[in-house]
Structures are given as C-alpha cells and as structure tokens.
Predict the 3D structure of the following.
Amino acid sequence: MSGMDLRELECFLVLAEELHFGRAGERLYVSQSRVSQLLRSLEGRIGARLVERTSRRVALTPAGERFRTALRPAYDGLRATVEDARAAARGVEGVLRLGFQGTADGGVTEAIAAFQDRFPACAVEIVEIPFSDPFGAVLRGEVDTAVVLLPVAEPALVVGPVFSRQRQTLALSVQHALAGRPELSAEDLADCPLVTPAAPAPAYWREAQAPTTTPGGRPIPPGPSVTTLQEGLTLTAANRAGMLLCGPTADYHGRRDVAFVPVAGLPESELGLIRRRDGGSERVRVFAEVVAGVVR
C-alpha cells in the first residue's frame, strides 16, 4: 500500500482501545473530526470498514478486529525501533527521577522495567510525592516527571500519556453502615464525610478527589484534611471518614479493617504522566513514549 501514513495506524490503534472518538482525540492531541478523517483515509486504503459508529456506541467490525490483531505487534516493533534509534542518536543516560502518589502500580512498574531494559545507561529513581501536593515536585524540579491523579490544569505542565481510566472506589471502615454493600451510587456519598487533600493542592484538584456535592446536588459532609495517602487510610480505618481512591490504589492498599466499595455515577478516575512545559530532557520524552506503549 503506497503512501501509508503511520499517523492513520496510530489513530486506529488508539481508537480501538478507547472506542470513543473524543478520548482518542485527547490522547492524540487532535480533534474528533481529525480522528474521523484519519480513520476514513485508512479505511479507504484498505477497502473495508474497520469501525462501526452509531449515536450510542463505537465498535470494531470483524475486519477491524483482524486488522488490530495483526497490526499491534508490528506497529509496536516499528515504534520501538524508531525510539531506540532516536535515543541512541541523542543519548538517553543518567538518572530519570519519577514521582508518584501513593504507589507505583503494576502498569507503571512494567513501563519502568521496559524503559530500563531498553536504556540500561539511564537509571530510574522512584520518589513518592505528597498526596496534598501533586504538582509541586515537578514544578520545583525535584523530579523530572510524575504519575498523578487527574485533573491537571496547571499552565506550566504538560499532561500525557493518560491511562488507567477506571471507576472510582470508596474506602470505608468495615464498621461503616455502607461498607457491606456490593456497590454505591454517587448519591450515597451524602451520607459519608470524605477525606480531603490538604493545601497546597489546588482547589479544583481537591474537589475532584473529594467532591462537596453529589451529582444530584446533595451536600457531601467535609472530612478531615490529610497530607499523605496513609493518613487518609488510617482515618478511614478509624471510621472518621471515607476516602475516594482510584482502582489501582484501592487494589494495592487492601487491608482487613477497610472495605473498598465501587461507586457508580462519578467521573472515572484517570492517571496521567506530567512534566514541565518549559523543559524536559530526552529521558523524559522517551519515558513518556514507553509508558504510552505499555500502560493502558
């Protein structure tokens, strides 16, 4: 196929993962209409529809499923080859300081291992950053990049890739009246004070992690403010409040005195890799590319 555009292939693979034109555009930093344009061009080259799109859902066609299965390993191999050549030309060595909140989950540690296997001259130092200060370490240059909970609206920061999009979970003391339920609704949060990140976390970020009202407009009682994730879990275990957590954090911090109950009706939690807009080494750029290829 002459004139094959790698951007079309990348667009198709991202859309096949997200099954949502808007989210695919966000990951590719293009508009929804550009995603549609790239998909149409690829389908024209192949001569078959790869994606079915209705007002309610996006799904791969049988031809799209076969194409994705065949394309994924070839595309990953090509991308890795290009990354290796670029890194070798510019030099990826030294130390990459990576910040994280709470814990570096399995996907992130897999990405770290893949990065170190590919670039053994570059060591990765993992640094825990405070729950109450998700962006400060990157802004101050204490770490080169960090995995944080979204949203991120800091003009001085660049976000990407975004990954681990999952339903939120409410941590509760096993003694709490809601702890025995298999699932909660967002409206149930009106019956449970929520642990809140302390300053200097921005107000919009604190609101996202501990909303003050339910989607229906009912007030959610404020709980204690904490600096670290462990403080929040300790207060939760003592039945002082509940704490909203992303899925990977809830899975990692399983304990007998805390129940973790999924919550329906809230925006999904997302993790993102952040770096400073006004700088960033080749180490940071290449690490972001490895994360994008490994973590979903």
Notes: The longest helix spans residues 62-90.
